[in-house]
Records
---
Amino acid sequence: MDPSDRERYSRQILFPGIGERGQEALLRAHAVIAGCGALGSFHAAALARAGVGRLTLIDRDYVEPSNLHRQWLFEEADAAEAIPKAAAAERRLARINSSIQARGIVTDLTSANVAALLGDADIVLDGTDNFETRYLINDFAVSRGIPWVYGAAVAAYGLTMPVIPGRTACLRCVYPDPPAGAQPTCETAGVLNVIVSAVASIQVADALHILTGAALRARITTLDLWAGGIRQIDAPPRDPDCPTCARREFPYLEESRRAPEGLCGRNAVQIAAAGRPVDLAALAARLAPLGAVRANEYAVRFAVPPYELTVFPDGRTIVKNTSDKGVARSLYARYVG
Ligand SMILES: [Zn+2]
């Protein structure tokens, strides 16, 4: 370790749980943060400050004013310019710790790109807002033996659980199937900003244990910062008949392409990337005579009242103000092609 790192991380090195060897391990580590919203932006800042040498941040969305009360990395200007979260986070992390590599990737994590994005991770932190992506992460992480840390928060309530493949229960040992029906989301039930940072802090503590090689007791933590109460129980043992970690079936890795889908709790539909890149400047020029267009290097936003389309360079498109997939598909076909 060079003298500047030794000085920078001195208080963390003094902490016996980490020490100089732990710090060296962090500097060599690669953490992937899946979802860079409320949980993920906290993970990213904490791991950058702790000196994790490589961070990859994956997020499909852009910053909006309603994110700012709980998404610590972002500022008003990011929302005003509708900067993608992964790009805004990368920029901010470079100012927080310029000695590490932090890379933001503006994309939707899917079965098609999960191997490329998570394949060389030492750990994955769950900052997603939906079960489909969590089951995808669980399938991939178990298939490759990569530890990951589940986290979720809504209203004043949150839950975390680390998954160390082969050693602790995986997500499907505990929850064999995603919950059925509509679930409360931050958009429908609201969220207290400090529950997010509390849940994310526990996830980061588990990640630091795992990355430094410290012994970690796998526990499920549930907490409610309004009614009160923090509860930790040992994670249950692995299910000997778990479809994922026992039978090694990975259905979430097999879907090759996803149909248009509603975005968790938002009145919006996402159309998956078509597999061919979009020339954003040309698209903006084409749409300009038809309505209000805002473009930057990351996306083109086009208003077709009451709808708004946001098109990313890989063709992925978010259609706002509808939850009707047919309407979304038709707008996409009409304006993007
Ligand atoms: Zn399992």
---
Amino acid sequence: MNMPLTMHPSNGAATRLTHGLSQPLRLLESSPRLPAHADVVVIGGGIIGAFAAYYMARRGVCVALIEKGRIGAEQSSRNWGWCRQQNRDARELPMATRSLELWEQFAADSGEDTGFSRCGLLYLSDDEAQIAQWARWRDFARTAGVTTHMLSGREATERGRATGRTWKGGVFSPSDGTADPGKASPAAAAALMKLGGTVHQNCAARGIETEGGRVSGVVTEAGTIKTRTVVYAGGAWGSSFCRQLGIRFPQATIRQTIVRVAPTTQALPEALHTTRVSVTRRSDGSYNLAISGRGRVDPTLQLLRYAPQFVPMFAKRWRNVFPGGLEGIRGGHETLARWRLDATTPMERVRILDPRPDRAAVKQTYDRAVELLPALGQAGIASAWAGFVDSTPDGVPGIGEVAGIPGFILAAGFSGHGFGIGPGAGHLIADLVTGDKPIFDPAPFNPARFAQSAWGKVADF
Ligand SMILES: Cc1cc2nc3c(=O)[nH]c(=O)nc-3n(C[C@H](O)[C@H](O)[C@H](O)COP(=O)(O)OP(=O)(O)OC[C@H]3O[C@@H](n4cnc5c(N)ncnc54)[C@H](O)[C@@H]3O)c2cc1C
């Protein structure tokens, strides 16, 4: 059931919503009882876990979805909402394309509202090198059957007329779109419940039990669920959780900041990217503002441990990534500690990873957005928040059964792209669990690659 989300009075300063979070989020009621048994237990109620559970339930699988905090409250409600094929790495493009179809189909099948629409994404630039890079991607995308339109200077200026200035060029990807991050994961979890699945919030999974090497149960803070299959979709907590099971999963998190402004009276683009700032209309008419790729790295022991593997990633993205502070240690998600199954774990101490937004980024983002689209300055800042993007060394997620622990399926490390591809990833996970033909080739996501410390090709975007 939805709870009302009202705003504290605002004088233009960032405020928190009454449910204690700064980002809008539909709140769901949990199922009444933790089951003693389930065919599959999904750990983590972000977009990945919620869609994976939903697609399994559609096939008659008895699923319990376990979430230590609130459904969708971490990365999945903190993102821009972009669901794009545009500029996707070749490994992820099939997942992105199928996901767009699934976003539409989900609404029709479930009657739930994710706020998804194929509004198209607009990219504008004055940088010829960047425009040439987009043109190269367009040529590659054609080979995969994806249509995207390069815009001449005149066309870019016309499409970007709300900015009131001229542009050298751009791209418009008409079949891409956006969904509402405050609605999408709760919608998938609600649809799961309609199909008979159960949802358990404020319920951390502490670990798993095995019998003869195979998964035999999930130990939660509220009791044990017997099961032979676990999907672990815990986002930024993935590496720490896997460490308890002896699984090597190199992961680094980057703290990114988003600013939200109230609706304006002027018609603005639905989703606009420029190098300086990006603007996305939410389904309630307010706008998410962000600087693409900008983030802070908050040092933790886990980060230091895996730093050598992230050298190529940081070398590619360093221009926009700055040293952070204590937010990573405060979050507790990157701990090297081992925890016991019969005592409180770090996941129960931090129910929702809610890092502080970067104050400098809030100001810079807002100022740049108002400079680009002055109408955004009408109402001032409504709220601001941050989220930890969980990244793998090659920028591509790990999805698949982990060698050595039959029945344990990893689905984490979505590297800043997981929202838009959530339905496709969830469908693939369901395929792997039920043994159906995979919706697309799962090979690029095989977690076996994390066992080596070799550098893989870093995703282009
Ligand atoms: C600022 C920002 C902007 C972004 N913009 C975009 C975008 O425009 N488009 C896009 O596609 N992607 C975007 N992303 C990335 C996207 O949000 C993530 O890739 C995606 O949400 C990851 O989903 P997830 O389900 O894997 O993780 P999460 O949403 O983080 O969910 C993981 C859940 O697991 C729970 N959990 C962890 N461990 C346990 C446990 N032991 N027991 C129980 N529960 C547990 C956590 O509480 C959490 O709710 C952005 C991310 C950020 C932060």
